[in-house]
Amino acid sequence: MSVRRMETPNYENSPVNGESRTRENCPSGDSAVYKWLGFSFGLLCIIQSSLNIYLWAQVDQNSNESKNISTCNFTCVSADDVRTLILERDQLLQEKLQFLQEKNQLNFSKDLLNQKNKELLQNNSQLNQEKNQLLQEKLQLSKDVTLLNQLREHLLQDKNNLLQWNSQLNRDNVQLFQEKDRLLKNNRRLYQCTKQLLQDKDELLRENCQLEHDLNQLDQDKTKLRNTLSRLKTTNGILIKRKMMCNDNVIRLQNQLIELQSELYMGWRRFKSGCYRLSSTSNTWEFARQDCEGSGAHLVILTDKAEENFVSSFGGAEKFWIGLKAENTSDTCVCTWTWVDGSSLCYRNWDNQEEPLPTWTYSCAHVAQNHAWLVGPCDESYYWICEKEL
After folding, report:
1. Neighbours of 31 (CB within 10 A)
2. Which of 52, 166, 330, 378 is the most exposed place for a label (fewest CB within 10 A)?
3. Would you give the DSSP letter of residue 13?
């Protein structure tokens, strides 16, 4: 009875070696799994080879025993051992299939990891490009910063030059103001001297004219001198009185001119036959009226558009009181607007072109920033303009 020789399966380890070559590029955790799988395949091959060697040894031993015993019922190897070996082989084959499945799964995981690695490499390449671009922008920004610093230094130099120039201009301005004050003093002194000389000249001219007239009269009336002596004495006395009156008027006009000049230097401005002054502070209407009367003037009275334009330009952008007031003594709000000198209202420039109805017991008018008249309580605080007739 011949025993069928069991074929030993040929287990090739080349895929495992190939996988070991490809695992070199994998991460460290997957390389441990591939090493364990290769070790398992190697162990499986060793076990299979051991089983084949054991089966061949049993077959040789049984063949030797059959040569010595001719009538022996040859059974090769016991059936239990054969079944056990077959079961072990089947179990090893199942483990091999299981390992192959795990290998396929690991290969799939490897492909996924390789794909992710490619994506990471692409991302790395893109990041490197962006890094290079940012480095170029950084270099450009550094150049721009250098240019800006140079420009800043130039600007600082220009600023220092302008400051020096400004300081020089301020010194020149101070000198010019001093020279202006000196010239104004000289001008005032010369003006006074000139005015005095002109007055003396006028007086001498009048005296000269009078003397010429008297001389001619004396020449013509030489024969009538005795008859007209008394009349001439009377005329001479009258002329002396007139001369004294003229001298008094000249002194009075000189004093008024000096007062007007002093007032003009103290903030008064002349327009036509009046002088105007803007207050330096703000207060109520009653306080403004008393302040103007204390300086020999009154709150401004606007009689025409030209005077209002002058006062508005003089007042600037400030609100200011004018000398217009109304008293409400009835419940029907019927009242009359009057100026501080008692005159009635003729010229008007109300804000809405309509005369307002005052709602307070005493209502006062002021000029707004748009140069129109507004009405409000008299206890509000505004600037004011005083007016003085010449």
Report:
1. 14
2. 330
3. -
Cα 61 from Cα 81, distance rounded (Å): 15
Map tokens 């607007």 to a residue: 337
Q: pTM of whole model > 0.70?
A: no
Helix (H) or strand (E) holding 197: helix 79-220
Q: How many residues does the chain have?
A: 390
Phi-psi region for residue 11, left (φ > 0), alpha (ψ -120 to 50) or beta? beta
- With a CB cutoff of 8 Å and minimum separation 6, the contacts of 258 are none
Residue with tokens 């992710």: 116
Cα-Cα-Cα-Cα torsion 206, 212, 213, 218, nearest 10 degrees, comes to 140
**Hey, which residues does 277 pair with through a beta bridge?**
268, 386
Helices (H), 266-385: 285-294, 305-315
pLDDT exceeds cutoff 50 at 74: no
Q: What percent of the chain has pLDDT over 90?
A: 24
CA distance 76 to 172: 137
